[in-house]
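tool_log.txt
---
The assistant was asked to compare two proteins side by side. It first ran the structure predictor on the initial sequence, then on the second. Raw inputs and outputs are pasted verbatim so the downstream comparison step can read them without reformatting.
(1)
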Amino acid sequence: MRLTTSLPADPRGVPDLAMARHLEQLGYDGIGAADVIIGDGTPGLDPPLVLAAAATATERIELEFGVLSLPLRPVAWVAAQVQTLQHLSGGRVVLGVGIGGFPGSPFWRAVGAPPTGRGRWTDAALRALPGLIRGEPVVVGDAELTLGPAAAVPPILVGGNSEAAMRRAILYGDGWAPSLISPGDLAVKVARLRELAAELGRPVPSVSVGGHAVLVDDRAAVESFVGSLVNAFGMSQEEAADIPVTGGPARVTERLAAYAEAGADAVGLGLDGEQWLRQAEILADARAALN
């Protein structure tokens, strides 16, 4: 199973890039960067810049957008950034994309991002991106655009738990990337993903699950995260409590195995800020036991 996590951040939201090398040494497959710029004072850094910095600190580990909100950015700009990062990193990019989760937030309004029609915007961007990254002529708006230097198109993961996101992944992506979902619910979704792929006559995408982990004895941190799911997403307390991965290596290995049995090919877990290094080691040990 492929395993990723994001870099730790200080209270200002600035990642410790020295930890990128440590993740590589621990055997992680990827470093993720979330696209959570809201504009209300919540710390949030620009993913392309975070991953470019991580690229300079590492040699092997993949650099994953987890996930980039396409409606926030002109598609030509996204393509140019991906091209650049592919060249800077030696082709280590994994491009996770989605429709974005904070429409109407101050940042979205400030950059003029569309609060509606995000699915159509994302579909159009996904149709254009591969050709742009490869350096082919592509019509964008009223311009025929050719970007260079050409780069290899990275694996494209389409985020979102909805059936629309699954269809988007089947039609335009290499993988589907649901998040904040229990193994039981994932199994149901993966069965539907396979049905949709058969209906559309397309290959079944890989499945990369995003989630959150608290791997130290910190009940307050678990309760805080569960509460945030209840408040932000309207989950029931029981449903939300089944989302975070908790416990020591043996328990975490069981959870990773449950995701694998449900159809996951990869898992990316954000780690709670306290004792980040110890948690990263526990997660790496748990994956090693699984494999």
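(2)
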Amino acid sequence: MKKSVRKEVTAEVMLPEELNKEQQQALTIAKALLPNAYAPYSHFKVAAVAILEDGTVISGTNQENAAYPSGLCAERVALFHAGSIYPHKKVTRLVVTALGQHNSPDGPVSPCGACLQVMSETEYRQGETFEIILSGATGDVLVTNGVSNFLPFRFTPEQLKK
């Protein structure tokens, strides 16, 4: 029997100055990290900041490699670092921003599928969602709670259980 499924996505789109103080601080930190990105091939620098439940700030930038796709995106660098160093501390916020050498994004830049899956696993591992803030070089910022707003039919470890 054929069925239709509809999932709703919830996100706020706002100007950077409309973010609260903590959100603005995290975005400022992320933007300051952009020069640390190693992007000699795409010339598209991405920085991510994971804020942990105790306020610890974990940063990551994209790290490219000539042997594509051996590099890592900023989001995965930050989340894997957080999971390695602070495995029992929850991520409460992830901020992602980007800057292109030839064409900088005006408005939010979405994480790739691999990063979204790592974000999903992080939420699963810690048993709760976290706030996600996406920003480009200029323009609006997107704020949402939980990766399910990007992956409504996400793959979870529950699907591996028999």
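---
observation on (2): Residues 63 and 131 are 24 Å apart (CA to CA). The longest strand covers residues 91-100.
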